Amino acid sequence: MGASDARQRDVFVDESKVRDYLLVAVSLERAHVRAARTAMAALILRGQSRLHMRKESDPRRRSILSTIETFDTVITVVRAQKDGRTDLVRRDACLRRLVAMVMVDGDASVCLERDETLVRKDRQTIMEATHRSKPTHHIPHRHESAAQEPLLALPDAVGWAWAKGGDWRRRCGGGITVIDV
Q1: Can you list the residues of the chain whose pLDDT is less than 50?
Q2: Would you say the pTM of this structure is higher than 0.85?
Q3: Is 37 exposed, middle or buried (0-12, 13-18, 19+ CB in 10 A)?
């Protein structure tokens, strides 16, 4: 996500806490969201409410990552290394950095995976981070469950693959921006 990507974009965000704290943001142009949502929803098997990499077989993981690779995405991993800070503090730092990036992008909305214990704090962090830089600016954001928003499978898959490393990380493509906070 950068200034050159200032078209209308939707940003889908999930976390991974396997090693470091990762806030994974996958951005799509709004014009491509419907097709991507349809493609991701088609990967959900009978009996599944959503895609979740941790619960998929390796062949399914490869298929999911291959599908994601066909989308024109901008992927950013905001990473807070384990350094004694709590997950909540590291999430807050990552989210503040993500908000700053989204504000540079201009017309973007953010969809975060819903965790009821974090919704209130996330909203507060987004408001504070936005008003600190541009008091009159507003970033449309929402929290959804992955069962309601199939595109939340994008950051889930990338975050899982990134945390696994090796060939899995390679399957995410080479255009991932990593920002340490």
Answers
A1: 2-6
A2: yes
A3: middle
